[in-house]
Amino acid sequence: MKKLAAVLLLSMLSTVAFANGHGGPGGPGGPGGPEGDRGPGGADLIVGTDGTVYLTRATTAADGTVSRSLVAISATGTTLWTASLGTARGPIVQSGNLLITVSTTRPDDATTTAPTSTLTAINAASGTTAWTLTLNGVAGEVRPSSNGVYVVVHTPGATADAAGTRSLVAISNAGAILWTVPLS
Fold this sequence. Notes:
Layout: H1 2-19, E1 45-47, E2 53-60, E3 66-73, E4 79-86, E5 92-95, E6 98-105, E7 116-123, E8 129-136, E9 138-145, E10 148-155, E11 165-172, E12 177-182
Antiparallel strand pairs: 1-2, 2-3, 3-4, 5-6, 6-7, 7-8, 9-10, 10-11, 11-12
């Protein structure tokens, strides 16, 4: 009886660890590295209060280009809509009735062009784009708030030996920058 209880306990603990991202694909050490495909501050999938599941799907073309889409699946298993995310890789964060994704563009050469991050807000009910906002720098942590999202943005220095900056940016659910506070 004690052995059965121990086996059940170990089974329950491993199930909890897997469900919390401590094992299996996309968890630490899984595909895509420690953050999987979700990126910092986001999720692999989100479940809405009505049971709708929002997740990303990747398709690889013959030339190796990966195109991503955001898919809404109802609680009954019906695909409600699909929204193209292009080649973007980033987190999904829900803020009210919006699903926020982030894509970052880094220069491919040694120019002084700084990286940019584009936030795209997708209407959770319809899959249409509500707004896009491009920020100078690399968007890291993205967290929802009652009136939008907060984003930590790192802007590299203009030269290799120049220090970069970090800022906290508050963005409204309408896609407007509310304020920016320097962090370093």
